[in-house]
Specification:
2 domains, 8 helices, 23% strand, five-stranded parallel β-sheet, FAD/NAD(P)-binding domain, alpha/beta
Length: 306
């Protein structure tokens, strides 16, 4: 029986794996290979990399570090979890893995604009398409920016970006905007223009990203989709884990879910979706798992937490 199976190989899961392996625990990371971090062309928010680091490079470094200390990394997809007398069972293809604990670090999936995969990948790599104003709002300082969305989510993102540039336009994807009077008033007060959809004909036009609405064709330096995300919490919910209305897993201060031996960290948990935050939760979760296992096995000494 393994000590821990970590589901998800993003920043949270790999941080936890490094900790767990260095606690001399038998840990296996099962990663489907779709971490959002891998799609980041360059992050300049992550401390310690003053010139920035590509998300894929950061994950490569973290995987190498986890393997160095003995963590096993497997690329596969977890089909389900079930409870067992001494732990949990993890279903992966035809294999059922017995483990004393499971850490879910499965993240979320951004809802994308309706554009071809190749166009999406190219626009993302060139900074013409961006998903995280907290991560890279600095990079659009004084540039012409569009936010694709409406309602409260679109309003909040547009107003946030207004702190970086005076030229922000909120464009509805489907049809006319669905904005409450208070939201329209706030956007007007902040100088954010609003444009009704539907929005079509996404394209790269030189060093700009182009799109079309019934009003006209537009060109922007960067486009931020504010269309929400889907949380990868299904296997935990099927086991009965509590979640928020959005589907984020609810945990205590030590990353425990309300299912025994099941922990969660990173974007799948309700909170700030940032690499640094996910890594912190991964460290907390790993230490909690170590201490919880120590309470059951006399050979393990609890890790002191200051």
């Amino acid at each position: 029986m393994l000590d821990c199976v970590v589901v998800g190989g993003g920043p949270a899961g790999l941080t936890a794996a490094i900790y767990l392996a260095r606690f001399h625990l038998d840990v296996r990371v099962i990663d489907a290979g779709n971490s959002r971090a891998a799609t980041i062309p360059m992050t300049r928010n992550h401390a310690g990399f003053p010139d920035g680091i590509a998300g894929a490079d950061l994950l490569d470094r973290m995987r190498a570090q986890a393997r160095r200390y003995g963590a096993a990394l497997v690329q596969a997809e977890v089909a389900g979890l079930s409870e067992a007398p001494d732990g949990l069972l993890v279903s992966v293809g035809d294999e059922v893995i017995a483990t004393r604990s499971v850490l879910l670090a499965t993240g979320v999936v951004n809802r994308r604009p309706p554009m071809p995969d190749e166009l999406h990948a190219t626009a993302l790599a060139r900074g013409l398409l961006r998903y995280c104003p907290i991560c890279d709002g600095y990079e659009v300082t004084d540039r012409r920016v569009a936010v694709l969305g409406t309602g409260g989510h679109g309003t909040r993102e547009a107003v946030f970006l207004r702190g970086y540039t005076a030229d922000v336009t909120l464009i509805a994807l489907g049809g006319k905007h669905d904005l409450a009077p208070a939201e329209r008033a706030l956007l007007a007060q902040c100088g954010v223009a609003t444009v009704d959809g539907p929005t079509t004909a996404f394209a790269i036009d030189g060093d700009k990203i182009g799109l079309r609405t019934p009003e006209r064709d537009w060109r922007f330096d960067s486009l931020y989709p504010a269309l929400g995300s889907d949380i990868n919490s299904g296997v935990a919910i099927a086991l009965g884990a509590a979640r928020s209305d959005e589907g984020c897993l609810l945990v205590d201060a030590h990353q425990r879910t309300d299912v025994a031996r099941l922990y969660a960290a990173g974007d799948v948990v309700k909170g700030l979706d940032q690499i640094s935050h996910a890594m912190g939760e991964g460290g907390v979760a790993a230490t909690t798992i170590r201490n919880d296992l120590a309470s059951e096995h006399a050979l393990l000494r609890p890790v002191l937490v200051g």
